[in-house]
Write a structure and sequence with these properties.
Blueprint: E1 2-10, E2 15-20, E3 26-33, H1 35-38, E4 41-48, E5 51-52, E6 60-61, E7 89-95, E8 101-111, H2 114-121, H3 124-149
Antiparallel strand pairs: 1-8, 2-7, 3-8, 4-5, 4-6, 4-7
Length: about 150
C-alpha cells in the first residue's frame, strides 16, 4: 500500500524534517520521491519516533529513491521499524538546488504483524509479565495433561 507524504515547498539550500503520521500501524518498506524533486535532494536521516535509521555514512542522493525508476524493486528496500500516528516517520532532507522546489513523495508500506506490534508497543516491564504469563500457561497445560492421564 502507498502512503502519500504531504507535498510542501522546500527553500533552496534548506535542511528540513518531512514528517509523516500514518493513520494506522505499518512498516515502511520503500521511500518513493517525485522525480523532479528527487534530483535535488540529499537524505540525511530517516527516523521513526526517536530511533534513527541512517541509510549510509553521510547523505544519500534522493535520486536513488525516484519513483521514475522503471523497476521499483531496484529502489532500495529500507529496514525500518513500525510506525504509527504516535511514532511518525521523520525524513531529514536537504534541497541542494539553487531554487525552491516542490517536495512530493510517498512511502510503500506493509501492515505490521502481531509480533512486531508487541515488540514496538510493549514496555520491558510488560514484556516480562507476558513471559511469566506464557510460562504459567505452559505449566497449566502440563498439569492438565498430567491430571487427564491419571
Amino acid at each position: 500500500m502507498l502512503m502519500p507524504i504531504r507535498p510542501q515547498h522546500i527553500e533552496a539550500g534548506a535542511l528540513v524534517p518531512i514528517i509523516t503520521r500514518p493513520s494506522g500501524v505499518c512498516r515502511p518498506l520503500r521511500l518513493l520521491l517525485g522525480h523532479e524533486c528527487a534530483r535535488h535532494l540529499q537524505i540525511h536521516d530517516i527516523k521513526i519516533g526517536n530511533m534513527s535509521y541512517t541509510i549510509t555514512q553521510g547523505t544519500t542522493p534522493g535520486i536513488h529513491f525516484s519513483e521514475e525508476i522503471k523497476d521499483l524493486a531496484s529502489v532500495p528496500k529500507l529496514d525500518l521499524g513500525i510506525t504509527s500516528a504516535e511514532r511518525p516517520i521523520v525524513l531529514d532532507i536537504e534541497n541542494t538546488h539553487t531554487a525552491r522546489i516542490q517536495f512530493t513523495g510517498s512511502w510503500e508500506c506493509e501492515p505490521a504483524t502481531e509480533p512486531e506490534l508487541l515488540e514496538a508497543f510493549t514496555s520491558p516491564y510488560q514484556k516480562e509479565i507476558l513471559k511469566k504469563y506464557d510460562r504459567a500457561l505452559v505449566i497449566l497445560e502440563e498439569l492438565t495433561k498430567h491430571r487427564i492421564m491419571k
